[in-house]
Hints:
Blueprint: H1 2-10, H2 16-41, H3 44-60, H4 69-74, H5 78-88, H6 93-116, H7 122-130, H8 133-151, H9 157-169, H10 174-198, H11 201-225, H12 232-249, H13 251-261, H14 268-280, H15 283-291
Helix pairs in contact: 1-13, 2-10, 2-13, 8-14, 9-10, 9-12, 10-12, 11-12, 11-13
Amino acid sequence: xxxxxxxxxxxxxxxxxxxxxFISSVGSQVGVTLGHxxxxxxxxxxxxxxGLVPTGISCLIPLFWTESPSWLATHGRFxxxxxxxxxxxxxxxxxxxELRELISHEKQKKREFLMQTNTNSAFVKFLFACKEVxxxxxxxxxVIIGAYRAAAGRILLFTLALTLIxxxxxxxxxxxxxxxxxxxxxxxxxxSCFLVKRFSIRRLLLVSGSIANILLLLVSxxxxxxxxxxxxxxxxxxxxACYCIIINAGPYPVLDIVLAEIHPLDIKxxxxxxIGGLTHNGPTxxxxxxxxxxxx
Length: 296
């Protein structure tokens, strides 16, 4: 979640949704596919060693990247914000106007806040935000998004799909099914880049989320009530494939975009900590794990 939120600060608003979907959805799905294939072809120890490479790169990148101009401006570091802004953008009248508007807006916010308190501390801003109803709406939205992603199988979906298809067909060729199932996910993630550019976030989430939920119910019903005889297994496989495509084309990328943009910029670190703690360490994930997808 932290990476997703940080990415948004560096993307141009005109291409933000498209670029964010490509980075967070397509990129992560390709990485998952690569990990699955490597685990089947190599010993897990070698896979773990290979995994140290991207982990090491992710540790080194923050040492060299330019700090977010928006974040610097919200903390009153306007000269550094201007320098960082021109490091990330080419000189133009539009960019000049955008920078001036950013600095002017943050200075106005700072003056208004200092009229209420004598400090500009982010923690004090967080305490003030906690008194507002809108902020708790943001927290509730973040928790609901986290719960939905867990219930929809964001982490376990493709592992479970491989097991399901293998049991349905009775074939032990795991590598083939890994490529096929992950291929559905990559196709859906790539499709999301077009959909988030073409349709509004609200409409896309409503339509794709409804379809995905219906497909998930149909998949569950078919696994319980439809026998693995004649051509019936292909119905189950088709439903699983459609679900993998729809969930990666709509709900997952849209919810990632929403989660990345709802946080107030000046207290973003506190919001990330609070939502992350409630979502990943709270009762929701534990309940789903015990009573839902992990129950045989």
